[in-house]
Amino acid sequence: MTASIAFVGAGPTTLYTLTAFVEHAARPARITIFEQQARAGLGTPYRPGWNDPAMLSNIASVEIPPLCETLLAWLNRPSRKRLISLGIDPRDVDDRAFYPRVALGRYFLDQFDMLVDEARAKGFIVDIRTGHRVPDMSVQGNCVQLDIEGEGEDIADNRFDFVVMATGHQWPEEPEARPGYFLSPWPASALKRLNAVNVGIRGSSLTAIDAVVALATAHGAFIEGTDGSVEYRIGAGSEGLALTMMSRKGLLPEADFHHPIPYEPLAFCAHEAIGTLIEAQPKDLLEQAYALFKKELAHTDPAYADHVRLADLALEDFAERFFADRADADPFEWAATNLREAQADFDQEITVP
To answer: What's the distance, Cα to Cα, between the start and end of the chain in Å?
Structure first.
């Protein structure tokens, strides 16, 4: 008897789960994919309209596991015109680069179509139900019964042998909880409707940066110079726009750093050494693990170890000492310096320990 499997949601989680299943399943199965949106395969974090085209993904292409093909191979396939339409400069295509989220959405969409074709070629029955919502489910004997909401058709067969929940993050249906107060910067289209006023943003992390980008591009443009510098130009009539990030710690995100993939093995604080400690179960397990960490850091970067006085630094005080220099500096000046350092390290393939 052919097993039946339902996937609730059709974003990247379903893509990767389905890829593994199609590759390793002992026999073909009947697969039904439910997606609330009109298109299956995009995923909420990568939908056009939900994201501003200037919003970048926070993962480099080399770190994204391949599906039917790698992201880099997919980027090298489209025409120059298509890349530009996705906000990508063809000269900047690289496995270490960060790309617009809408571009990743297009990649996942194409991979979804290719994966469905591959599954059907192997004998799987694949049914894709877009515009359908699954608000609830219940176990009925050896099956799982889904409550299904959708328009245009009556789904009588709503029992499955297995169900994969892949609904992703539960975003608020209405981001504006009350006039002028938004629970999140998504969808970006909601923020872009705001007038050029004084806006407060609670936080200064990557989510706050997304809000800044959405608002900034709604009222102006980022202009890249021939030397790689970027200048923001406010649009006519938007001179009243002011953005203030309210940060508990006063820190901005740091730039991605160069590192080998996979990571190079460590000398002292290695998996094997930590594993041996865990097996021994000493009463001071955490202290012994921290001692290995200190030994590794002092060996790899003695200058930094001296700077933070690592030899006498207690575990409980390490985080505060680590962030001390950043906390004492102007956050925007630190960010600019950090970016220059990161770019130079990438050019010279230097990994800061």
So the answer is: 55
Looking at this protein, which amino acid is placed at residue 242?
Answer: A
Per-residue pLDDT at 325: 94
The closest of 257, 252, 264, 276 to 332, measured between CA atoms, is 252
* Domain shared by 72 and 220, yes or no: no
Q: Could you tell me if residue 294 is left (phi over 0), alpha (psi between -120 and 50 degrees) or otherwise beta? A: alpha
CB 127 within 8 A of CB 93: no
- Model confidence at 341, pLDDT cuts 50, 70, 90, reads very high
Q: Which of 71, 135, 148 is nearest to 108 (CA)?
A: 71
Q: Is residue 144 part of a domain?
A: yes
Q: What is the CATH number of the domain that holds 47?
A: 3.50.50.60
Beta bridge partners of 223: 231
132, β-bridge pairs: 150
pLDDT of amino acid 18: 95
Contact predicate 254/265, CB 8 Å: no
Task: Give how far the C-alpha of residue 1 lies from the chain's centroid of Cα atoms, to the nearest Å.
Answer: 39
137 and 19 in one domain? yes
Residues 321 and 234 in one domain: no
Q: What is the 3 state secondary structure string of 202-222?
A: ECCCHHHHHHHHHHHHHCEEE
Residue type for position 212? V
Nearest CA among 34, 160, 50 for reference residue 102? 50
For the record, the structure tokens of 241 come out as: 């726009």
| Rounded CA separation 205/198 (Å) | 19
Residue 153: the pLDDT is 52
For residue 154, pLDDT over 70 is answered with no
Do residues 37 and 112 lie in contact, with contact meaning Cβ atoms separated by under 8 Å? no
E strand spans, the chain: 4-8, 30-35, 125-130, 132-140, 143-150, 159-160, 162-165, 176-178, 181-182, 198-202, 220-224, 230-234, 242-246
Residue-wise pLDDT tens digits, 96-146: 888 998 999 999 999 999 999 999 999 999 999 999 989 999 998 899 999
> CA-to-CA distance for 126 and 17, rounded, in angstroms?
14
For residue 324, how many other CB atoms are within 10 A of its CB? Answer: 12
Range(s) of the domain holding residue 42: 4-165
